[in-house]
Amino acid sequence: MLRIPILVIVCVLLSFSNIIHAVSQEPANPLQGDGWQKLDCTGEPDARHGAAFVEAKGDQAWWLTPQRLVQTNLREIDATMDVDQYVRELQEFGANIVLFNVGGIVANYPTDLEFQWRNTFLEGDLVGQVLPKLHAADIKMMGRFDFSKLNEEYANQHPEWLYVSEAGKHVNYNGQVHTCLMGGYQQDYMFNILEEAVTRYPLDAIFFNMIGFPQKDYSRVYHGICQCENCKTSFKEYSGLDLPKHDGAPEPLAKYKTWQQIQIDAQFKRVRDLIKSIRQDIAICTYTVDHVDVIRKESGAPVGLEPWDDLERAQWSLLTTEDKQLSNASVHFYQMIFRHSAAPPYLHTRRLWQQVVNGAWLDFYCIGPLQRLEDRGGIEPISDIYRFHRDNQQWMLDTVSAVEVGLARHDGDDYWGWVQILSENHIPFDLVSFDHSDLQQYKTLIVPDSARISPDNARDLDAFVKAGGKLLLSGKLPEPLDCLGNPTLKQIWPSRHSMYVRIRPEDKTMLNMDGLKDYDLVQLRGDFYEYAPASDTTSMLRLIHDVTYGPPEKCYIHVVSDIPAMLLRLFGEGSTALLPFQIGAMYREWGNPGHAMLAIGTLDNLLKTERRLKVDTSPMVEVTHRCDPNGNFEWVALYNHSGRMNNSFHPPLPIHDIQISLQADDRKVQSVKSLINDKTIPFTTRNDGRIEATLSRMDSYDIVLITYE
C-alpha cells in the first residue's frame, strides 16, 4: 500500500459549500484526503503504515494501494467503439483500472428497469462485453453512475422526483432534467439501478457523479436552493422553519446547510450499506469523505494553480482522512466548454507526478475512449508516467515518508511562500496537521502565520521543542507559547510604504549563507511584531522603518532601529526561532533571494537542522523523499519544472549533474540507480556514513533508488 508519508488519519469534514455547489465532476473547492505518517526509515516498521495496514485489511482493501486509473467518460455514440482496441489502448497506456459509464443518465447495458434510459446506440451489452476483456487484461472496472438527471421522457411521468428552482421551474438541460436528492428517484429508484448493475456484473468499484444538492447547470446558470415539496417537508420537520431561498435570513440558511449535510450523509450511508452487503471488496468513490473508500477530486484549472498544488492536495488529503485513498483526476480538457481540446501535456505530467510520488492514485480523465480523442498531443507524456509507475511499482506501492521537516498547513500567502522556499531549496517536507500528525516524528517544524494556531497547538509545540525538536515560526507568536520565553509584544508596526530588515555582519556570520554577503537588507511589507525578548534569548537582524523613497536625492536610510527581526532561544533539549514578520509572504510576492536565504539559514544553521538528504541542483527541480517501511530501500524523486513559461508548458530543459548526498549511517548500500533508465549510478561512501552520488542527466523526471544489503 503505497500510502505516502504525510497523509491520512481521521475524517475531515467536507465544507458544505463544496457539496452544495457541486455542479459537475469538478468540485468547487477540492477537499483533502488520506495518507500516512512519517516513519523512521532506519528503524523498525510501524504497523500503522505501509503494507502492514493493507495486510490488516486484507484483499478487500485493494484500493489503498495506489492504482493507475483512466476515466474515459463515454458518450452515447461510444457504444459503437472498437472494444478490443479500447482494452488494448488501456493496456498500452499503463492503466490498471478504468472508470467506465455503466448507468444512471444512460445505461450501457440492457437494463430491465423501466425508468433507466437505455443507450439508443447500444447493440447488445457494452458493459457485459467490455468487463470480461478488461479483467482478462488485469484491468479493473469502476462503474460510473450519475443520478443527478433523468431523461425528459421519464421526468414528465414523475415530476415529484425533480429539482425545483427558486423560480418554481424544473431544469431541463439538453433533454436531461435535474433530479433532487430528496425525491423518489434518488431516494428509492437509484438503489434499484445500483442493485441491478452490481448483482449482474462483477464490478470492482463504483463512482457517483454530481452528488449532493447542485444549484447550477452545466452552463453555470444559478437556479438556487431546491424548492420541491420533498425538500420543503423534510426541512420543516427538521427545523420547524420554512425552506429558505439563497438570499433568505441567516438562521434558516445556516440550518439548511446542516440539514443538507445530514441528508447527504444519510444517503451515502444507505449506498454504502447496499453495496457492501452485496460485496465487501467493491470500492466506493465520489467527491466526499464519509462512507467512501476512495475520495475523488479533480485538477482542471486550464494552466494549473500553484506549481505545487497537486503535491499539497495529495499530502493534505491523505493526511486528514482515515483509511481512504485519493484519486485526483488530471482533467484532459481546458474547460468544460472545451471538452475536446486538451490542456498542455506537461501540465498533466506535473499534476500526475506530484500525486503519485506522494502516495495517491494516478488518475487521468478524458471525454470518450482514447481511440476517439481528437486532441492527442499529450497522450504520450501522460502515459509515460503510467508506464513508469507500472514498471517500477515494486519500489512505489509500499513506501512511507522519509522527510524530517514538517510544514504546518495554514492556507495563505505565508504558507505558500514557505512551500516555494522549501521546494526551491530541495528540502522535502510533510504537511502537518495538529489534529492528525505525530509531531515527534520530525526534527524540525515550520509554522507559517503562527498566530493562527490554537492554545492547545501551542502547548503541543512546547512539548515538541522540550523533547529536542527545532521550531521555526513566522509572524506573530501564538499564545500561550513558552518555548520562546514569553517575550513581551511591545508594538505592532503596520505595513508602511518603506520598511526593511537589516542584515548585519554578525547576523551573516551566524546564518552562514554565502549568498548573504551581497545582501545588507531585504524589503519588508506587512505587519511587523516588535517583541522585548526574554533575557536568555539571542536577538538578530534589525528593523528599519520609515525610510524615505523620494525624491532620489533624499533616498537614504537615516536610522537602523534596535528592534530585533529574529529571536532564537534554547528550550529543554530543543530550540525555537521566530521571524516576527511573514517572510513566506514576502518571498511569494517578490521572490527575493535574500528572503529565502534568511529562511534557509535559520533552518539549517541557527536551528541546526541536520538534513539526512541534501540535493544540489537547479531550484527548478522538485524533490520528494520516501522509503521502504522495513528499511530495505529509499528513493529520491526528482521533477523538472523548467518547461513552464507563463501560461504555456513545454518539454523541460535537461538538467545535468544533480548531486545527491544521503546519510546512510551504519547501513551498507547495495546499489544506487536511476529508475528512468535502470542504470547504476556510481557512489562513494564517506567516513561519516554519508553516501554521495551524481545523476548525470534528468529530463522530465526521475527517481534515484538506494537499496541496502
Detailed description of the structure:
- This protein is of the alpha/beta class and 709 residues long.
- It has 17 helices and 34 strands.
- The strands form seven sheets. It has a nine-stranded mixed sheet, sandwiched between helices.
- It is globular, with a radius of gyration of 27 Å.
- The protein starts with 15 loop residues before the first helix and ends with a strand.
In brief:
By secondary structure, the chain is α/β, with parallel strands linked by helices.
What structural class should be given to the helix and strand makeup? Answer: alpha/beta
Rg, Cα atoms, Å? 27 Å
**Mean pLDDT level:** 90
Distance, first to last CA: 23 Å
Strand order of the largest sheet: 14-13-15-16-23-22-21-18-19
| Biggest beta-sheet profile | 9 strands, mixed
Work out the strand percent.
15-25%
Number of helices: 17
The parts where pLDDT drops under 50 for at least 5 residues are: 1-39, 43-58
Record field, number of beta strands: 34
List its traits.
709 residues; single chain; 25% strand; 17 helices; 27% helix; 8-stranded parallel barrel; disordered N terminus; alpha/beta
Lay out the secondary structure.
Elements (H helix, E strand, L loop, with lengths): L15 H5 L29 H8 L10 E6 L9 H11 L3 E8 L21 H11 L3 E7 L2 E3 H4 L16 E2 L2 E3 L5 H17 L4 E5 L19 H11 L10 H29 L4 E4 L7 E6 L9 H12 L4 E7 L13 H12 L5 E6 L11 H13 L1 H4 L3 E2 L3 E4 L4 H12 L4 E4 L11 E4 L7 H12 L3 E5 L13 E6 L5 E4 L2 H7 L9 E4 L3 E5 L5 E7 L19 E8 L2 E6 L3 H8 L2 H14 L6 E4 L4 E7 L5 E8 L3 E2 L2 E2 L5 E9 L5 E6 L4 E2 L2 E3 L4 E9 L2 E8 L1
